[in-house]
Amino acid sequence: MLPISCPYKAIFCDLYGTIFDISTHEDDASVWESMRAYMNDRGTHYANGAELYENYLHEMNQAQARGERDKGVHVEIDFVPVWKTLYERSGAEVSDEEAYSTSTYFHQTSMSLLEPYSKVREFLAIVRRLGLRPILVSNAQASYTRPDLKSYHFTEYFDRIFLSSDFGIKKPDARFFQHALDECGLSPHEVVYMGNEIGCDVLGARGVQMDAIYLHTPLSVPGDPACSEHATLNVEGADYEAVLSWLCKTPVRIEGDGTSARIIPAQSAQSA
């Protein structure tokens, strides 16, 4: 196995648009009809999906406003209490676990695509064997992301998982990055952040003096440039071989699948 030349102990990773490709349609009327049926089966009395959607937007806006008053503009509200309120407002009493399951069901119902990018499992396995701790630090709802990670058997690929809805604050706020650093016992210079957004990921990481890798993927912010002057490395697409080549300071290719994958010199791959 080729050694890593960069002075990092860990790589913090974003999830959606960096590790997973995803497409959702949360405003689609059919999604809200499905949610109405799901919740009415559990005791609510919503007349139609449009009524539920209107109530959902109202409760989300209220929760967001309360959160911003308490924690600032980068608050990340947890959606689970919102779903519980939507049950209660329509005459149903449910447990926290049922509200969590409802939030997960909404996420899964509104998704038309969820899949890991090619070679990302191999990438995470390789960086761990090379001595870097892969750690997930992502703006995400726990009720969405933990089931997504579990369904694709990705939980075990990360040493630690930090989600904004658990902490209550999201990127690019320095408090979220610092929380992950403190919990992992790491200094900013010991970590490189990898994400697909310039604002949240690159500038957020640089705000705590952390190096940043910018992956310009189809889920990057529309209109953002393909490169950022603030990134330590710019990569077009989810090209993990390019990231590994940069870490090893020599061109490499991924060979093999899953946790048994390894890296070999790029010239060896071409000659083979």
Keywords:
11 helices, six-stranded parallel beta sheet, alpha/beta, two-stranded antiparallel ribbon, Haloacid dehalogenase-like hydrolase, elongated, Rossmann fold, HAD_sf, magnesium, metal-binding, HAD-like_sf, 272 residues
CATH architecture of the largest domain: 3-Layer(aba) Sandwich
Run of helices and strands: EEHHHHEHEHEHHEHEEHEEH
| Mean pLDDT metric | 96
Name the assembly state: single chain
CATH fold annotation of the largest domain: Rossmann fold
Unreliable stretches covering 5 or more consecutive residues? none
Q: Overall 3D geometry?
A: elongated
Helix count, per DSSP?
Answer: 11
CATH superfamily of the largest domain: HAD superfamily/HAD-like
Q: Indicate the CATH class of the largest domain.
A: Alpha Beta
Topology, pairings included?
Blueprint: E1 10-13, E2 20-24, H1 29-40, H2 49-71, H3 79-89, H4 96-110, E3 111-116, H5 120-129, E4 133-138, H6 142-151, E5 160-163, H7 164-167, H8 174-184, E6 191-195, H9 198-206, E7 211-216, E8 233-236, H10 240-248, E9 252-255, E10 262-265, H11 266-271
Parallel strand pairs: 1-4, 1-6, 4-5, 6-7, 7-8
Antiparallel strand pairs: 2-3, 9-10
Helix pairs in contact: 1-2, 1-4, 2-3, 3-4
Protein name: Haloacid dehalogenase-like hydrolase
InterPro entries: HAD-like_hydrolase, HAD-like_sf, HAD-SF_hydro_IA, HAD_sf
Keywords: Hydrolase, Magnesium, Metal-binding
Structure description:
The model has no long low-confidence stretch (mean pLDDT 96). This protein is of the alpha/beta class. The longest helix is centred in the N-terminal third of the chain and has 23 residues, at 49-71. The protein has two domains: 10-19 and 117-265, 3-Layer(aba) Sandwich (Rossmann fold); 24-112. The chain has helices at residues 29-40, 49-71, 79-89, 96-110, 120-129, 142-151, 164-167, 174-184, 198-206, 240-248, 266-271; strands at residues 10-13, 20-24, 111-116, 133-138, 160-163, 191-195, 211-216, 233-236, 252-255, 262-265. The two termini are 18 Å apart. The radius of gyration is 20 Å and the shape is elongated. Helix 1 (29-40) packs antiparallel against helix 4 (96-110) and helix 2 crosses helix 3. The chain has a six-stranded parallel β-sheet, with helices on both faces. Strands 2-3 form a two-stranded antiparallel ribbon. Strands 9-10 form a two-stranded antiparallel ribbon.
